[in-house]
Design brief:
Radius of gyration: 19 Å
Number of helices: 11
Shape: globular
Number of strands: 8
Order of helices and strands: HHHEEEHEHEHEHHHEHEH
Largest sheet: 8 strands, mixed
């Protein structure tokens, strides 16, 4: 019997979690600079075997964007058009492998990519703005997608891209964060950091960009879209990584959105659920004007 491979968290993440609390106590300025590096530097997880199989079945190509080489994957024929998928922080385009067959069968080509500093793509640091550049480059190259389906951080990048001019009518954000303080706190929790570092980081962002951290969140972005958007939020009530409070906060400021709430799927298994995939396909093919 073949032993199942364990895709546990990378050694670098365990190392950071072990040393950061001590560094924060003994050398706060150094810990703060280290946190900046961590915040913009995703950990690369190994691609599981089933994702490798999906990657091997794709029509894959390289796309130069913002000084990086981005790996793009396409599955199936664009009989009706294509749907663009955007993974989350430390994720991979092949995480949407369960969507491929149902969407292809319905006539939609599935297009996904490994974001900068993720998967096979080049780079060590990235931001939502860089992801937004990738989205715009793909649309410039392939034309307007029928919809964008994004997971977690990918939803932040997608709404930012639309605010900056990307034209798309339908977006599905799955388990996507919106609340700035909770986003920072999730990073701090992962490495054992304290709220003091989070407070400093928000001031750092304002000092270096001239804008408060809030303006880089989806809660701000969704209120500054240039045109109305058909927006579906898919979120699990027990998501421990991105609590459902994020979805409810966005609904409060953008009531035109629709919430599809699930139970027992968490943050990542939600991408493999047949009911979620069926619901996403239905939203993509809905006939509303």
């Amino acid at each position: 019997m073949t032993k199942k491979k364990n895709y546990s968290e990378p050694l670098v993440l365990r190392f950071v979690r072990a040393v950061f609390p001590t560094l924060e106590k003994l050398a706060p300025p150094l810990a703060r600079q280290f946190f900046v590096q961590i915040f913009f530097s995703p950990v690369r997880y190994e691609r599981p075997e089933k994702e490798k199989q999906a990657m091997a079945a794709a029509n894959a190509f390289w796309l130069p964007v913002a000084g990086e080489r981005v790996r793009v994957f396409a599955w199936g024929e664009a009989v009706k058009g294509y749907v663009l998928f955007v993974h989350g922080w430390a994720g991979r385009g092949t995480q949407f492998r369960k969507f491929i067959e149902p969407f292809n069968r319905a006539g939609w080509q599935v297009v996904a990519f490994d974001g900068p500093a993720h998967g096979e793509s080049s780079g060590k640091r990235t931001t939502a703005l860089q992801f937004a550049e990738v989205l715009q480059k793909i649309v410039d190259t392939r034309g307007k997608p029928q919809a964008i389906i994004a997971h977690s951080f990918g939803g932040v990048a997608t709404l930012r891209a639309i605010m900056l001019g990307l034209v798309v009518d339908r977006v599905i954000n799955i388990a996507s964060p919106t609340l700035g303080d909770l986003i920072i706190n999730s990073y701090l929790k992962a490495i054992g950091g304290s709220p003091r570092t989070g407070d400093w980081f928000k001031k750092y962002i304002e000092r270096t960009t001239g804008k408060p951290f809030f303006e880089f969140t989806s809660l701000y972005t969704v209120q500054h879209l240039p045109r109305p958007l058909h927006l579906l939020l898919v979120h699990d009530e027990g998501d421990m990584e991105t609590p459902i409070a994020h979805a409810h906060a966005l609904l409060n400021v953008y009531p035109a959105a629709t919430l599809h709430q699930t139970t027992g799927l968490g943050h990542n298994r939600i991408l493999k659920d047949e009911g979620v995939i069926k619901g996403c396909l239905g939203f993509v093919e809905a006939k509303e004007a």
